[in-house]
């Protein structure tokens, strides 16, 4: 029996039911339905901590999936698993690949910032403050992108800018937010995209 049937409530019962109903009624190809099934099974395994099984399902999901926007959510979750496994280089690679296909994933920017911040802390602990500050600078850039996409959902990032005394960088976000909102309007959001977005938001690194 498919894992998705055994664990129908793996994230949220309501969203799972809605996703299944919409998947039946919206026009999708057999390949898209197959990809979504693998994606859903991957998230089920991921929610249980079965990362190897989750990765296998996500990799299978990328084969029939041709829509770049849909693929971005799969790549994001692969990056999230590598993050959880401490494989930060691989995680950054998959977050980059996800953002190449969908630049409106604030959770990807946030997770990349967290990784860069962690590497900065590690560099400072090892006595290399210059490299540490470089990582912090990179973290700031990613957090600025995350805040630009979701200004009201980035309290931790705002606090980080204050703690690290990066007030000027934080203030410059007012201009970034305006342009970002304009760009959002031209991004197509189909029902299938909405399902993937709804499910992917159940996972985040922090």
What this model shows, in words?
The protein is mainly alpha-helical and 206 residues long. The two termini are 33 Å apart. The chain has twelve helices and no strands. The longest helix is centred in the C-terminal third of the chain and has 21 residues, at 129-149. It has two domains: 1-102 and 189-206, Tetratricopeptide repeat domain (Serine Threonine Protein Phosphatase 5, Tetratricopeptide repeat), CATH 1.25.40; 105-186, no CATH class. The chain has helices at 3-6, 13-25, 30-47, 51-62, 68-84, 88-101, 106-125, 129-149, 155-163, 167-171, 173-184, 191-200. Residues 3-13 and 172-191 have low confidence and may be disordered. Helix 3 packs antiparallel against helix 4. The radius of gyration is 18 Å and the shape is elongated.
Number of strands: 0
Q: What is the CATH topology descriptor of the largest domain?
A: Serine Threonine Protein Phosphatase 5, Tetratricopeptide repeat
Low-confidence stretches: 3-13, 172-191
Q: Helical residue percent?
A: over 70%
Largest sheet: none
Instruction: List SSEs in N-to-C order.
Output: HHHHHHHHHHHH
The helix/strand class is mainly alpha
Residue-averaged pLDDT, rounded? 75
Our estimate of the beta-strand percent is: under 5%
So, CATH architecture of the largest domain?
Answer: Alpha Horseshoe
- Write down the Rg: 18 Å
Q: Find the CATH superfamily of the largest domain.
A: Tetratricopeptide repeat domain
